[in-house]
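Marked as duplicate of an earlier ticket. Keeping the data here for the record.
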Amino acid sequence: MASAARLWRRGGCAVRTPLLWGAPKARLGWRRQVASGRRGGGSEVLEQSRFFRRGVAFSALSYLSYEAYILISHSSVVHADVKVNEVLDQADYLYGSGETEKLYQLLEQYKNSENAQLLWRLARASRDVAQLSQTSAEKKKQLIYEALAYATKALEKEKSCFSVHKWYAICLSDVGDYEGIKKKITNAFVIKEHFQKAIELNPKDATSLHLMGIWCYTFADMPWYQSKIAAALFSTPPSSTYEEALRYFQKAEDVEPNFYSKNLLFLGKTYMKLNNRKMALLWLSKAKERLSHTEEDKQVHKEAVELLNSL
């Protein structure tokens, strides 16, 4: 259970493969048959079932050969499952350790993978490398688009994982920075839909709740010229309120207190917008006092200090 809890905190899905969670072998075998059918290996099984229906019996040698083939096939799938889980464990360790570039180098080897768990992590790693200060503007753009491609493929492979929806929405939002305000507003509906789906699949993921709060805050705080573009594009343009944003930020904090400096900052900023000076002071002070571990934390600290001085 401890490992499962760590996985939720990292933003992964509760289940990777049946093998990791000690599922009964019979159930595992059934899953493998389904998987092999998708890869095209199911034709052999279908062909042999036709032989059985026609009353054709295997010889003892043929039967034993068939059983050996099945055992070898299952063994290779188990090995593949173990390898994937080992890579995921390595990836989660590197992510938790802040080894951004090492994580990207590890996962980039699997960029042609069909595994959604590897792909959404690769999307996240690509985006994280893009955010590094030493990454050039040209490389950043390339990585942002690559991240969206990985997240899109992950979504095609697995729609029941909250992290897949969350990182698809994040990456789609990032691409909007390169495609203009019209495209960004057009994508806003899709982004909101996937954040909401992530929350539906895992209501206890503080990050998804925070990001939904950011979406609401952004459209509550939209400049007039952007509102005009949105009204021209849609009969019902994307919109929200500070009250709605506050609910998501507060829910995120309730789920995992003090999990993210930026959530503390936005609680303070939202209360400022709602003219609640007392609560704004409380949350901005918390953002200021929180220890800085990353460049983003330092930026949050700086903004919190500036806002407190303005109150």
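See parent ticket for discussion. The chain has 14 helices and no strands.
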